[in-house]
Amino acid sequence: MSWYKVLLDAASAMNEKPDSIGDAIQALSQERVQKALVVALTCLQQPDRIQEKASDQATAQELARVISTAIAPVLPVLNDDNGLPASFNDALSNNSKALNTHCKAASTIGLQCLEAIDNVFNPPTLDDDTLLTLIAYCHPDQNWSDDPTKIAKIAAAILKTYPFPNKTDFITSTILQSYLRPLFSKSKPSTITSSGRKAEYQTDNSRDGIPDDTAATKPWKFTDLRSIPVFSWAVTEANNALISTHWPSYIPVLLTLADDSTTPIRQTGLNILSNFLTKIPAKTLQDTGLGQVFADAVFPTLSYLPSLTPEDESLQLLEPAYKALLVLAGKQSATGGKEGRGSSPRHKLLDHLIREGIFTGYLHAKNHVRIVELLCRETVEIVDAMGVHAVKHLKDMIPMISAILTDPFASAAPRTLLSAVKALQAVLRNCWPRLMTGSVWQDEIINALVMCWLNLDEPTNNISDDSLEEVRKELVTSFQALSAIARTEGTDLSARVEPLVAKAGSLAGLFLGLVDDDMGF
């Protein structure tokens, strides 16, 4: 049905088209929402027909409230819930589907109405609930509209010009205390106290070990769907000073989201946590014990691996989990410990991350090339963060990287192969003092580079030459780095590689600059 037909139907149901904001409010209470919103928008787009009155601001606020209520992704409370788990609650499921369908149908026109109100009254005064709905629609990943990006731009444009009387108070008082605290009060994690600090004694909040996933205990998840994007906004818009003062109000929500059993929510929670950690003072994490609380909350996500976890879901969770832990490590002290810098809180966390994350993950999921690709990318970040202290992990890192590079079928997944070469370069860049001549690792690295180069010459279906050529370039770079390391002690690798080229002429391309042209290759 065209917009014009919708407008005609809505207009025909009324005695006449509205010529005032008051008539539009009346229409919203009488007609079906979508038609009424079209009527309201038509009225608002004709400002010359709007009769100006002293009460216009109050009327505009009321109209905005009615419209935001009409498009808010909020379900009515079920009176007969009886603590039924959401996965078995047919009424909740049906209501959720209906709400999603309704919001997709009404959100675009509703946001356009709010935008028109903003333009006409420049700007209107909006109540807190209207602002919460606008903030929720600012999130580009929300799924309550057919065009989330367009909707997010409209909502963000309205909020950008909105004159908050005191934005800090709105975030801390309105959002964190008045709005979010009641929603999350029944699902607060046991790892923290009521003041947001690390709990010395923990209690089990689940029933017989089963998560309490009901609309009553988790309204933020099943009934008021604005809560997560609003919380994300409260973190993004907060400056470092605000978070350094009001951090206890954020902690329960952060830990609840990062521990949720639903993949999209846990993923979002981890991303929000990374953002939060960039802003909270390092001293606060240390003094309150929250650094360990966050680490304990995130590390279990690293075990969400195939085949127990579907590969796609595993990828969605692993990347934000590693990111959060790396940001947390960056906040830890790099000094301290009885054994020197290598035993500092930062390096202890990084050691734990590479052992329990990278190596364990590879052991369990090495047959999943996309997981291996991600683990290699994260290895680069971790090794660069550890610096020379990563040498303690050479006995596990080099065999892992070598196994990836020498796999005869590796060329079928050039992105995974490229990430492994990048991981090798990170090892060369940071651990070079242990890779001198005579090191067992130097021979293994040369062997891995040679085998990988030769495997790339094998024909591979559906793989572009450009992808493999990029891998070749990085292999050459890796060998040049290894050669440079050898030269620091006055060793030339020419004598080592010339016999290899004599057996396989194609290796001349790998050992550029070290092979004598007189060899004829």
UniProtKB/TrEMBL annotation:
Signal sequence bounds: none
Family membership: Belongs to the TTI2 family.
Organism: Podospora anserina (strain S / ATCC MYA-4624 / DSM 980 / FGSC 10383) (Pleurage anserina)
Biased composition (Basic and acidic residues): 197-210
Top-level taxon of origin: Eukaryota
GO CC annotation: cytosol; nucleus; TTT Hsp90 cochaperone complex
Region: Disordered, residue numbers: 189-213
Name of the protein in its database record: Uncharacterized protein
